Please model this.
Amino acid sequence: MTSVPQVTRHASYGIDAPLVATAFAMMAAGFLGAGVVAFALASSAGWGLLALGIFMAAQCGLCLYVSRRGKFAVWAELLDELRLRGDERAVDLGCGRGAVLIAAARRLPRGRVDGVDLWRSIDQSGNDITATTRNAVAEGVSDRIQLHTADITRLPFSDNTFDLVLSSLAIHNIPTPDGRAAAVREAIRVLRPGGRLVVADIFKVGEYVPALEAAGAQAVTVRPLGWRMWWGSPFVATRAVTASK
Ligand SMILES: C[S@@+](CC[C@H](N)C(=O)[O-])C[C@H]1O[C@@H](n2cnc3c(N)ncnc32)[C@H](O)[C@@H]1O
Model:
């Protein structure tokens, strides 16, 4: 297993689903403002509006925490659990600004990590291949990272290329069940026999298990990743899917 230095974050990884965090912040401001007005008018609605404002502010705060801290801590544990040798070849599907891509590259000093993305800024603020490149340089791993602009439902790699397929919070963004199943099939197609897959995602994880099994994945497991990856509340929890080929 490769020893990994304490993570120091020199890079800037943006905010996931920035419109959601903004909507929570605006609703919090609206309810809190209305609560103040209600108190000024001696209306009995004041306490209810205040409670709603605090609830929305808490959801906004939790979303920001997950984007900036929680996701990094959880993925550090997921990657450590893999007990990597350090020379594996990995791919991060929907890598965005590189949170998982770069964490993996830090653990693979003799390996290589490919990142695939369409760089959609609706899914992550400031999402751009140049931002990911800058982050890889800032984190000192650019020598072992290669980025590709491509759709994860049609990967630009041969069969059986990777020892490790990773994906964080990306596949649920594909709008159709067929598209999500195609991404899962592609993930298994590019994995080498004996290779391992780790996907962390929200909402659609239940679909991935039958798609993985149909694509020939072995030992498929699903588990919750806990409050550090709750997107505002336990109703939008992240789960990890692991499998091998
Ligand atoms: C919420 S961001 C997560 C980024 C990164 N994995 C992380 O955890 O920080 C979702 C990412 O999936 C990418 N994405 C969404 N649909 C995609 C598709 N069909 N093909 C490639 N990338 C996609 C977005 O551009 C975005 O970078």
Notes: Confidence is low (pLDDT under 50) at residues 1-6. The pocket of S-adenosylmethionine is lined by residues 16, 71, 94-96, 99-100, 116-120, 123-124, 127, 151-153, 168-170, 173-174 (CB under 6 Å).
